[in-house]
């Protein structure tokens, strides 16, 4: 059993997706338990594999016992071990937190939602676990196709259009990636990451390899919404049901950052990426642009969901920049930030979802007195906001620490400045939202001595609140234990991969 | 010096945090809620006080909670400086809680549970800042303090509160993220540690320009210390209910700011580097400017709480100035001013609040003859003024005496003149309030001639703190002892 855990992480939700699709015709009441069981199984398998990796080194699983490089290899090391756990945990918690909401929004289509949701998770787990570049493409398309469908199911009338927009850009991104992989296959005759990595050094000088690398990179950037390739993201995530954007916003972009770093460090190797290519300064500057542009665009939004989307675009800039600074501290910060950002984006979208459940559309004016009406969701929102701003002891502070430290070490002060600027803008954004949620309507002459009117508490359903608080506790715990996470999981990987 | 392991510092930090859920659950029963608050305050003070004998005997307490990076763990350490500050803050918390009961009920304020909860969180972070073993931990508590005081400052939830709250966060959070955070990380990259040490952390590894820039960034970054020109938030924060102004904006928040600067000067840069790189002089000049500007603006204020706020701006810089003198007497005088000013200023704020509760008067011009109606309050105000001016028989005289000796020791005559001039200005703006209160021939409209005071829960605390201000003139050995040890003066 234990040697199969790497495969189980992907197969369990896949099988669950088929079972749910079938059950939807006969026994709809069993759909949710099956889906939950599938996601729980994935989470347990990912935890078990992380545990294996920490104690015994990387796991390699050969699909159907075909030997790589011909067969498909799944490979879990410290890096993706961590990401897999984050993906599985977010997917499970979100389904628990969102089910009430999904039932209300989708009524008779909720079984279809479950099947697509499971496929989406299958794809993400596969993309993260696979050690085969073409297999990665296939799984990425499984993820994307189910994402297009999930977004199109959204309640907004713009949802199909936003989804279509996403399809166009997503397909272009996927094509770029596939082309890049094609070039590499032509040059090396292999699709296995480890195999390619061992073959590439002889042909580092080749232009084809360079083009392959850049095509892969552009493809991945489109999929992760790296500015200015971000245009699909805000519309897609705000037109979709919040139950869907709650899982996509934290996971999709972060997994793509993982893929980028995997390509950089494992497939092409640090020596090629930072030593032979001279792209770092340009890409770090692009990242700086992304950080600032995301922050500025967030400032002009009047809708909480939109604000959060542009914050994501800014955060993508943090990670792309951190990865390309090319020093240990920055890479550590980037990898830590993949996990942290997934968690804090998840937390803040959970809170936003709770608000949306009770207050409707997330325009800022609709949030008046939200804290008094929904104190627990408000607490969760504040803690998630603290993490995004980077206030200790939440986890966002600690990854930001490493990123800034890496920027200072590299002498890239503009990057450090951009990080600080975006932290300050994030603070402004969260304070602005909090002001609406805390002060209520000041026109009505509210709040003077003795005139304060009491607001009835009207909290979201217990499951939604409990999940939110669970994740925010996680934000603090991951923050307080960042030292251990870094020293046991991230640093060994970074030290082994960077020169 | 021996470092003892103890969980007491941690418990002292956590006890008021732990009481928050209890407060929330007893929100319908005000008496129960306030009893819990007081109980938590007593336990907190008891825990802090229980550390005093060992620290006076030359020990320190330490506990590492979470390791992050070498030399930058989340860790607590209790030394003389931190303990002196924690002692004052946790003691005055109890007094302020009693006062709050009188004040908040007297004004029938809304959302009192929220008020007590955030007050408790703020106190936890203040004690945490006092007991921080390194800059990272200090930063953590500093930030939590900023955020937990926001709902207190904006308690009234009206337009004015909204604007002041914005200003408050812009100054305090803006500087801590924009300035302290990068400076702290840069310090760590250069020095490899953030652990406070009397010799400083840098050794020979830092150039003078770098040291100067870093120092200035820290000096302005800890905007809670309200060094000019970053003092603007303090008068704005006066829209808060008076107990908040009293404990937080005369004691805990602003003193955490100054305390952070003291740590930066004595624990990060160290006396030696402060002297050799000329940083003491820079800090001294900026502090002197702040002292004079604060005092001068205070003179022109008619709103009593704003006057007190500008007076606080000025007095905070006494502390910075004292430490920046880098002479033993000056440093002791500076740090002990944290204690002396706390008791004097909290008395003054309590008085302003008692007047507010009883007569709804906020402006000095409305208070003519009010001393004849509220003699106890005005008498306490007089004592508090004496202490802030620095006249005997009050504790304020003691710190000012040390500061004067310290500036003589440092042969800084200009700073000596600033100190004396500011004392004079303090007298100019405080004594007329008292004088007009008692002796103005015609009372302001609405002031009664017969005796009537604010509720006893307001008046008793202010008399008590006034009494302690006098007491500190006669007995302050504990604080002097702790501070000498904390500064490494034996």
* Alpha carbon gyration radius of chain A: 22 Å
> Distance between termini of chain A?
37 Å
Shape of chain B: globular
State the low-pLDDT regions of chain B, or none: none
Could you give a quick summary of the protein structure above?
Chain A is mainly alpha-helical.
Can you put this structure into words, describing what you see?
The complex is a heterodimer of chains A (499) and B (490). With 499 residues, chain A is mainly alpha-helical. Chain A is built from 20 helices and two strands. Chain A starts with a helix and ends with a helix. Chain A has a two-stranded antiparallel sheet. Chain A has a domain at 278-499. Mean pLDDT of chain A is 92; it is low at 446-450. Chain B is mainly alpha-helical. Chain B has a domain at 278-490. Chain B contains 19 helices and three strands. A three-stranded mixed beta sheet of chain B has the order 1-2-3. In chain B, a hairpin with a 2-residue loop joins strand 2 (59-69) and strand 3 (72-78). The longest helix of chain B has 35 residues, at 242-276. Classes of the chains: A mainly alpha (499), B mainly alpha (490). The interface between A and B is large, with 36 and 39 residues.
């Amino acid at each position: 059993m234990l040697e199969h855990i790497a495969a189980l992480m992907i197969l369990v939700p896949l099988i669950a997706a088929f079972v749910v699709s079938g059950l939807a015709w006969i026994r709809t009441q069993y759909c949710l338990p099956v889906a939950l069981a599938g996601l729980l199984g994935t989470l347990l398998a990912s935890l078990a594999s992380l545990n294996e990796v920490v104690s015994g080194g990387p796991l390699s699983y050969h699909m159907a016992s075909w030997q790589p490089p011909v067969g498909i290899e799944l490979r879990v090391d410290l890096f993706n071990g961590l990401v897999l756990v984050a993906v599985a945990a977010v997917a499970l918690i979100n389904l628990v937190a969102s089910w009430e909401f999904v039932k209300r929004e989708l009524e008779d289509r909720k079984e279809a939602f479950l099947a697509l949701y499971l496929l989406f998770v299958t794809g993400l787990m596969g993309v993260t676990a696979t050690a085969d570049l073409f297999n990665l493409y296939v799984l990425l398309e499984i993820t994307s196709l189910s994402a297009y469908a999930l977004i199109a199911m959204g309640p907004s009338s713009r949802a199909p259009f936003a989804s279509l927009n996403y399809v166009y850009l997503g397909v272009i991104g996927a094509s770029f990636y596939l082309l890049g992989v094609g070039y590499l296959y032509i040059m090396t005759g292999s699709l296995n990451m480890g195999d390619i990595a061992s073959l590439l050094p002889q042909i580092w000088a080749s232009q084809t390899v360079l083009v392959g690398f850049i095509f892969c990179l552009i493809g991945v950037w489109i999929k992760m919404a790296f500015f200015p390739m971000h245009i699909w993201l805000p519309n897609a995530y705000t037109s979709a049901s919040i139950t869907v954007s709650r899982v996509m916003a934290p996971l999709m972009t972060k997994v793509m950052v993982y893929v980028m770093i995997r390509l950089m460090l494992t497939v092409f190797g640090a020596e090629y990426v930072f030593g032979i290519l001279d792209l770092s300064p340009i890409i770090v500057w692009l990242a700086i642009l992304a950080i600032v542009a995301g922050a500025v665009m967030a400032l002009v939004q009047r809708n909480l969901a939109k604000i959060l989307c542009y914050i994501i675009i800014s955060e993508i800039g943090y990670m792309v920049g951190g990865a390309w600074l090319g020093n240990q501290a920055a890479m550590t910060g980037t990898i830590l930030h993949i996990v942290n950002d997934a968690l804090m984006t998840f937390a803040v979208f959970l809170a936003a979802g709770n608000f949306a459940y009770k207050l409707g559309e997330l325009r800022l004016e609709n949030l008046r007195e939200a804290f008094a009406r929904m104190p627990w969701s408000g607490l969760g929102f504040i803690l998630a906001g603290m993490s995004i701003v980077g206030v200790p002891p939440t986890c966002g502070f600690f990854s930001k620490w490493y990123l800034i430290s890496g920027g200072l070490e590299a002498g890239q002060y503009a990057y450090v400045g951009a990080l600080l600027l975006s932290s300050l803008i994030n603070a402004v954004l969260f304070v602005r939202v909090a002001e609406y949620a805390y002060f209520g309507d000041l026109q009505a002459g509210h709040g003077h001595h003795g005139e304060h009117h009491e607001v009835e508490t009207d909290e979201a359903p217990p499951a939604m609140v409990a999940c939110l608080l669970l994740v925010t506790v996680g934000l603090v715990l991951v923050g307080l234990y960042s030292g251990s996470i870094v020293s046991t999981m991230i640093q060994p990987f970074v030290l082994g991969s960077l020169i | 010096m021996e470092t003892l392991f103890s969980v007491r510092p941690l418990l002292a930090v956590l006890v008021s945090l732990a009481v928050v859920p209890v407060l929330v659950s007893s929100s319908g029963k005000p008496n129960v809620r306030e009893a819990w608050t007081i109980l938590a305050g007593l336990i907190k003070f008891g825990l802090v006080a229980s550390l005093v004998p060992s620290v006076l005997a030359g020990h320190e307490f330490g506990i590492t909670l979470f390791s992050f990076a070498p030399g930058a763990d989340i860790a607590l350490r209790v030394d003389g400086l931190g303990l002196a500050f924690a002692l004052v803050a946790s003691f005055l918390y109890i007094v302020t809680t009693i006062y709050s009961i009188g004040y908040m009920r007297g004004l029938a304020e809304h959302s009192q549970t929220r008020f007590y909860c955030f007050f408790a969180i703020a106190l936890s972070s203040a004690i945490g800042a006092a007991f921080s073993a390194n800059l990272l931990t200090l930063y953590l508590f500093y930030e939590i303090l900023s955020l937990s005081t926001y709902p207190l400052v904006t308690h009234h939830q009206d337009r004015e509160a909204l604007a002041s709250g914005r200003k408050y966060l812009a100054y305090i959070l803006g500087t801590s993220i924009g300035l302290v955070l990068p400076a702290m990380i840069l310090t760590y990259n250069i020095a490899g540690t953030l652990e406070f040490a009397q010799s400083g952390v840098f050794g020979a590894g830092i150039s003078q320009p770098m040291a100067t820039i870093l120092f200035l960034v820290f000096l302005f970054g800890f905007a809670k210390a309200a060094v000019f020109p970053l003092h603007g938030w303090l008068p704005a924060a006066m829209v808060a209910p008076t107990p908040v102004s009293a404990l937080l904006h005369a004691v805990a928040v602003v003193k955490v700011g100054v305390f952070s600067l003291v740590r930066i000067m004595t624990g990060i840069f160290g006396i030696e580097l402060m002297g050799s790189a000329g940083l003491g002089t820079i800090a001294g000049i900026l502090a002197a400017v702040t002292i004079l500007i604060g005092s001068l603006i205070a003179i022109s204020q008619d709103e009593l709480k704003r006057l007190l706020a500008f007076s606080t701006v000025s007095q905070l810089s006494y502390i910075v100035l004292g430490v920046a003198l880098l002479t033993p007497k000056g440093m002791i005088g500076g740090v002990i001013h944290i204690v002396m000013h706390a008791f004097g200023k909290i008395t003054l704020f309590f008085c302003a609040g008692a007047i507010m509760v009883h007569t709804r008067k906020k402006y000095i011009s409305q208070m003519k003859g009010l001393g004849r109606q509220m003699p106890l309050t005005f008498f306490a105000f007089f004592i508090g003024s004496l202490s802030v001016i620095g006249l005997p028989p009050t504790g304020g005289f003691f710190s000012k005496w040390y500061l004067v000796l310290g500036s003589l020791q440092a042969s800084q005559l200009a700073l000596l003149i600033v100190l004396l001039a500011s004392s004079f200005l303090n007298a100019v703006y405080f004594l007329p309030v008292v004088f007009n209160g008692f002796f103005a021939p015609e009372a302001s409209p609405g002031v009664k001639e017969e005796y009537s005071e604010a509720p006893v829960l307001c008046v008793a605390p202010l008399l008590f703190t006034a009494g302690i201000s006098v007491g500190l003139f006669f007995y302050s050995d504990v604080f002097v002892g702790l501070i000498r040890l904390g500064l490494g003066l034996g």
